[in-house]
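Q: Give me the 3D complex with iron/sulfur cluster.
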Amino acid sequence: MKHFSNKIIHWYQQNKRDLPWRDTKDAYLIWLSEIILQQTRVDQGMEYYRKFAKEFPSVKHLAKADNEKVMKLWQGLGYYSRARNLHATAKIITDNYKGKFPSEYADILSLKGIGEYTAAAIASFAFDKPHAVVDGNVYRVLARVFGIETPIDSSQGKKEFYQLANELIDKKNPAIHNQAIMELGAIQCKPVNPDCSVCPLNTICFAYSKKRVSELPVKAKKTKTRNRFFNYIVLHHNGNIAINKRVEKDIWINLYDFPLIETEKELTEEQFLRSTEWIEFIEKNKYTIRSVSANYKHILSHQKIYARFWEIDCPKPFDKIIPKTALVINKKSIHDHAVSRLIEKYLQDRNY
Ligand code: SF4
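A: Here is the predicted complex, encoded as structure tokens.
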């Protein structure tokens, strides 16, 4: 086991990428980077990490921040529950731990938005506690090197991989061991066509010796994707528009978009113009169509959104007919509100 750890640590020292959160032992900054990097590429995450670390240099600064400001800064990164949890957890650390990040694994794990992986990362990177990190990169390296065929998305698989990762960890150097195995998975043992000839583990790797690299790791379930059809109604009156805050338990909670008519299936423009919702909301009020956009396809992890934007001219103010969660704002101030990537794209295309 020491052998495994020595090999990856040696490789890491020669090959690691220079990333800003690797130069710190500050648990707050490590936590920030880990949350940003969940579901986000390193190059995109770096820019957000720098913005957040500059704007909120400590957990107390983040706790005191206005929620809208946090969401606005997060805009474009997706998975917005991460930003909400970051903010809520910063307040808990400020109130319950006097602004000092807890150092025990169990305390870290009890915080909102922090799962086993992130708790192990913070405990090891910031406090040198011997807790093994197991993320997608680590699953891949372990499945291939040790020839484990148990599906990584099964509870049995999770147990097996965690146990093995914790047996392998170098208890004297947990931070660098964890960094090394994750980095190896990220830049050497890539999902497709890794260059095994230069890998430090190629002499002990099951998958390489048996020519089974492309078969491992194994996944049990295929994730189902749901198709959704959005018709956004952009109401205009006197330089004002209506924007809607998403408060339902759904995607993009607490972000702004426009009043929305969602349909069960894909409708042509003609079919949509005959729908009850359209007639009740638009036709009855004698609104006129200024333009309709092409279809925007927006892909999330489990959903595909097909969105169309209807720009509508309203002869009278529309305050009374818009949803309770909507606001009437001057068109130009839309940029002060946090919106999804889809809305941001539309606003850019239309030069809002
Ligand atoms: S030898 Fe190939 S498959 Fe095995 S750990 Fe290295 S890169 Fe991954």
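A quick observation: The chain has two domains: 2-215, 226-349.
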